[in-house]
From TrEMBL:
Belongs to the thymidine/pyrimidine-nucleoside phosphorylase family. It holds the Pfam family Glycos_transf_3. InterPro entries: Glycosyl_Trfase_fam3, Glycosyl_Trfase_fam3_N_dom, Glycosyl_Trfase_fam3_N_dom_sf, Nuc_phospho_transferase, PYNP-like_C_sf, PYNP_C, Pyrmidine_PPas_bac/euk, Pyrmidine_PPase_CS. The keyword Amino-acid biosynthesis does not apply. SUPFAM superfamilies: Nucleoside phosphorylase/phosphoribosyltransferase catalytic domain, Nucleoside phosphorylase/phosphoribosyltransferase N-terminal domain, Pyrimidine nucleoside phosphorylase C-terminal domain. This is Thymidine phosphorylase. Signal peptide: none annotated. Keywords: Glycosyltransferase, Transferase.
Length: 422
C-alpha cells in the first residue's frame, strides 16, 4: 500500500477500500504518511466526499488508533454532549453540572478555541487555579465524586484525529461532513459514553451554514454513534446570532454562573434546558427535572464542587479587561441582525482566541452585547462593548464588527429565530 495510490483513488472520485482506509490512518498516526500527503487526501475527500461505508470505516480506524476509556465502574449512567462549535456557546459550563445534579455522570472531554469559535477549556481556564489536564484516574475520581468533569482529552484518545484535526485547520479542509463527523464521533465513541446528545449548529457562526448540510452532518453522526452502541440524538440549533450576551472566556464564565444562579439570558437558559432534557432522556433518567435543579441550587452546588475538584476557586474574582471600547447604535429602531461570525472574529481579534495552536489567549478579552435581534434600540445607546488587555487590537477588531448589525426603522415587524430549529 502507498499514500499516492490512496490519494489518487479519491482524487479520481473512487471509493476507498477498507484496507486503504485502515492503512492510511495507521500509517499517518505512525508518521509514515507525511502531512502533505494527508492534506492532499483530506482535500480530495472535501471535494469528492465519502459514502456511508467509507465514513464508518474511517471513524473505526481513528478509534482504533488509540485507547478506549471505560466508565462501566460508575454507579450512574453516562451522558455526554457535543456542540459542533459556535460563538458565545458556553452551554457546556452550566449543562454538565446541571445534568450531574439530576443523576447522570457527565464525562465532558472538551477542546480549545481555534479560529472564530470559542473553546470550553479556554473559558474555564479563566477561573484561577482550574486545571484542564487530568490523568485518566483523576478524571474518573472527579466523575465519580461530583458527577461531572470537564477536561482535555488525553493524548491516548483517537491520536489520529488529534494530528488530522490540526492539519485540517491549516489546510482549509475543516468543512467536510465526512471529516467532521468522523472526527467528533471517533473521540466520543473512544471516550466510552453510553449516550450522546449532539448540538449541531447552523448559521453564519457555525461550520454548517444551512439546514440541509446540518441535517446531513447530524444524521451521519447519529448513524455512527448508533452503530457503535452509543444512544445518540441530535438537535439542530441556531448560530446565526451569538448565544447569550457575551463572547469571550471570563465573560462567558460569568454568564454561565448567572444561569446556574437561576438568571442569565433566555436563549442560554432555553438551550441548556433543552439539551439537559435530551441527555437525561438518553441516559434513561426520564423523570429528572432540570428546571428544578437550576431553581433549587443543586446545579450550582455541582458546579462549585466540579470547579474545586479540578483545583479552581469558585469564589475567586474573574479577570476583567484593562481597556474597553463601546460601540453605540447609530440610529433608533429595531435590531434585526447581529452576526455570529462577525462577533466571533471580533472577539478573536481582541485576544479571546488564538491564531496558532500554541498562542496564549487573554482571559478577559471578548465582546459584550447590549441588545439582541428583535430588541428596540435608541440612537446613542451602547450596542457592543469590546474588551481587551491590548488596546492596539481595537482597530482590527472594529473592522470585523463594524458591519455586524442592522437596525431597521422603528416599529418594523420582526420575528426571532427559535434557538432549537429541529
Ligand atoms: N470539532 C471536532 O472535534 N472536529 C471537527 O472536525 C470539527 C469540530
Amino acid at each position: 500500500m502507498d499514500a499516492i495510490s490512496v490519494i489518487r483513488t479519491k482524487r479520481d472520485r473512487g471509493e476507498l477500500t477498507d484496507a486503504q482506509i485502515d492503512w492510511v490512518i495507521d500509517a499517518y498516526t505512525r508518521g509514515e504518511v507525511a502531512d502533505e500527503q494527508m492534506s492532499a487526501l483530506a482535500m480530495a475527500i472535501l471535494l469528492n466526499g465519502m459514502n456511508r461505508r467509507e465514513i464508518a470505516r474511517w471513524t473505526a480506524a481513528m478509534i482504533a488508533s488509540g485507547e478506549r476509556m471505560d466508565f462501566s465502574t460508575l454507579a450512574r449512567p453516562t451522558a455526554d454532549k457535543h456542540s459542533t462549535g459556535g460563538v458565545g456557546d458556553k452551554i457546556t459550563l452550566p449543562l454538565a453540572p446541571l445534568v450531574a445534579a439530576c443523576g447522570a455522570a457527565v464525562p465532558q472531554l472538551s477542546g480549545r478555541g481555534l479560529g472564530h469559535t470559542g473553546g470550553t477549556l479556554d473559558k474555564l481556564e479563566s477561573i484561577p487555579g482550574w486545571r484542564a489536564l487530568l490523568s485518566n484516574e483523576e478524571m474518573l475520581n472527579v466523575l465519580d465524586g461530583v458527577g461531572a468533569v470537564i477536561c482535555a482529552a488525553g493524548d491516548g484518545l483517537a491520536p489520529a484525529d488529534k494530528k488530522l484535526y490540526a492539519l485540517r485547520d491549516v489546510t482549509a479542509t475543516v468543512e467536510a461532513i465526512p471529516l467532521i463527523a468522523s472526527s467528533i464521533m471517533s473521540k466520543k465513541i473512544a471516550e466510552g459514553t453510553g449516550s450522546l446528545v449532539l448540538d449541531v449548529k447552523v448559521g453564519t457562526g457555525a461550520f454548517m451554514k444551512n439546514l440541509a448540510d446540518a441535517r446531513e452532518l447530524a444524521s451521519t453522526m447519529v448513524g455512527l454513534g448508533t452503530d457503535h452502541g452509543v444512544r445518540t440524538v441530535a438537535l439542530l440549533t441556531d448560530m446565526s446570532t451569538p448565544l447569550g450576551l457575551t463572547a469571550g472566556n471570563a465573560l462567558e464564565v460569568r454568564e454561565s454562573v448567572e444561569v446556574l444562579a437561576g438568571g442569565g439570558p433566555a436563549d442560554v437558559v432555553e438551550l441548556t434546558l433543552a439539551l439537559a432534557r435530551e441527555m437525561l432522556d438518553a441516559a434513561g433518567l426520564k423523570d429528572a427535572d432540570p428546571a428544578k435543579a437550576l431553581a433549587d441550587g443543586s446545579a450550582m452546588d455541582a458546579w462549585r464542587r466540579m470547579i474545586a475538584a479540578q483545583g479552581g476557586d469558585p469564589d475567586a474574582a474573574l479577570p476583567t479587561s484593562r481597556e474597553q471600547h463601546v460601540i453605540t447604535a447609530p440610529s433608533s429602531g429595531v435590531l434585526t441582525r447581529l452576526d455570529a461570525y462577525d462577533i466571533g472574529i471580533g472577539a478573536w481579534r481582541l485576544g479571546a482566541g488564538r491564531a496558532r495552536k500554541e498562542d496564549p489567549v487573554q482571559a478577559a478579552a471578548g465582546i459584550e452585547l447590549h441588545a439582541k435581534p428583535g430588541d428596540t434600540v435608541t440612537a446613542g445607546q451602547p450596542l457592543l462593548t469590546l474588551h481587551t488587555d491590548t488596546p492596539e487590537r481595537f482597530d482590527y477588531a472594529l473592522e470585523a464588527v463594524s458591519d455586524s448589525y442592522d437596525i431597521a426603522a422603528p416599529g418594523t415587524e420582526f420575528s426571532t429565530t427559535p434557538v432549537v430549529l429541529e
